[in-house]
């Protein structure tokens, strides 16, 4: 822990030097500082009671805390909890949702030290994913609600009921779009899955259902103007698809491509297609699309056979909006099967898609957050 604290101190020194140089052409984040690395949130494995963890990558030195590293535990002396889902910064705080442990952590993004926590009670529990708008944090609760949180006081200020088992969310204008997966109803073919459109002024919602179009929606990305969702299908005869959502009716939804995960940066949508269904299985693809025309622009990463640049089982991709670098998270493989209880890894590519390095991380890597610290 002393070593970890020392390295965070060195990060602060590095930031001090960075702020003194002429950096007008350097990529900035929302606080105006230069990103020095990123965190990887590892979900763990709830079936085997493996807790989540946070891996750290230092872009300046190339160092990271490895597949057994756990920044959160090292700094705070407590485990992050079971089924960690997402990290998100708002202001000078970083929030982490942990579903099975029913907790939302608030930490200092530069030191990882705990500022406080929220343990939801009542009907709205089991925090999954987050979005932010107008200085407020919004959290989907797997029990069928979305909560608004004041990030300074850590108080839940408003709650709205949405569809069953909501997952990821995105904001367009003054509307929060929520993907209601109905994931716990998979034996009934996700019968009540839907989208919710929450007005952030009135905090009321309208729900949109159409089983032929909206089927098991789980993922959502937005650049503030364009919003896309991924409907995961039924892992059998219905494939996972990426849809563009421009309004609150079925006529406002347009299919983009087959895909299982995505990220967005500017006017580019990055889509991984790694279908779980044998019926639709084929070569894994990594395509980039124009968010306006929806035209495919080619592959967003380059891989060479039998090298570390190849990815065994991609989970998701994340694009650094400050410099265009791409991080792809992956499980390791045991023959034809993903190793869900073994440490995974992250592959780093430059903005042209050229492989840079492989970064070991923990069990179940699930999210990446580009930050202004180094490990």
What attributes characterize this protein structure?
375 residues, 4-stranded antiparallel sheet, mainly beta, 2 helices, 29 strands, disordered N terminus, 45% strand
Structure commentary:
- The chain is mostly beta strands and 375 residues long.
- It is built from two helices and 29 strands.
- It has a four-stranded antiparallel beta sheet with strand order 3-4-5-6, with no helix packed on it. Strands 7-8-9-10 form a four-stranded antiparallel beta sheet, with no helix packed on it. A four-stranded antiparallel beta sheet has the order 11-12-13-14, with no helix packed on it.
- A hairpin with a 5-residue loop joins strand 21 and strand 22 (296-299).
- The radius of gyration is 20 Å and the shape is globular.
Global outline: globular
Number of helices: 2
Uncertain spans: 1-33
Q: What proportion strand?
A: 35-45%
Mean pLDDT metric: 90
Placed side by side, the strands forming the largest sheet appear as 3-4-5-6
Helical fraction equals under 10%
Find the structural class using helix and strand composition.
mainly beta
Give the C-alpha Rg: 20 Å
End-to-end Cα distance: 12 Å
Oligomeric grouping of the chains = single chain
Largest sheet: 4 strands, antiparallel
**How many strand segments?**
29
């Amino acid at each position: 822990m002393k070593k970890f604290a020392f390295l965070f101190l060195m990060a602060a020194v590095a930031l001090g030097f960075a702020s003194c140089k002429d950096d007008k052409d350097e990529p900035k984040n929302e606080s105006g500082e230069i990103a020095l690395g990123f965190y990887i949130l590892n979900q763990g494995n709830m079936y085997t009671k493996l807790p989540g963890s946070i891996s750290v990558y230092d872009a300046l030195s190339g160092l990271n805390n490895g597949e057994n590293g756990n920044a959160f535990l090292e700094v705070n002396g407590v485990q992050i909890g079971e089924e960690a889902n997402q990290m998100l910064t708002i202001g000078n705080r970083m929030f982490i949702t942990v579903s099975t442990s029913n907790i939302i952590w608030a930490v200092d993004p530069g030191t990882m030290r705990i500022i406080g926590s929220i343990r939801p009670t009542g009907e709205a529990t089991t925090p999954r994913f987050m979005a932010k708008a107008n200085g407020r944090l919004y959290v989907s609760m797997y029990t069928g609600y979305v909560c608004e949180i004041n990030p300074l006081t850590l108080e839940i200020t408003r709650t709205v009921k949405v569809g069953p088992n909501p997952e990821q969310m995105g904001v367009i204008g003054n509307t929060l779009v929520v993907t209601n997966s109905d994931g716990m109803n998979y034996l009934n073919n996700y019968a009540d899955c839907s989208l919710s459109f929450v007005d952030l002024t009135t905090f009321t919602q309208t729900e949109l259902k159409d089983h032929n179009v909206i089927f098991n929606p789980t993922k959502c990305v937005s650049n503030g103007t364009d919003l896309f969702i991924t409907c995961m299908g039924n892992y059998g005869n219905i494939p996972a698809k990426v849809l563009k959502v421009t309004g609150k009716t079925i006529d406002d939804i347009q299919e983009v491509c087959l895909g299982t995960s995505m990220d967005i940066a500017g006017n580019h949508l990055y889509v991984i297609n790694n279908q779980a269904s044998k019926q639709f299985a084929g070569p894994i693809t990594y395509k980039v699309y124009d968010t306006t025309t929806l035209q495919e622009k080619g592959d967003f990463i380059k891989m060479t056979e039998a090298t570390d640049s190849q990815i065994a089982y991609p989970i998701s991709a994340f694009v650094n909006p400050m410099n265009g670098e791409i991080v792809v998270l992956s499980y390791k493989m045991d023959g034809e099967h993903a190793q869900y209880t073994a440490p995974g890894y992250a592959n780093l590519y430059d903005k042209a898609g050229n492989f840079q390095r492989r970064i070991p991380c923990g069990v179940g890597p699930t999210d990446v957050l580009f930050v202004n610290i180094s490990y």
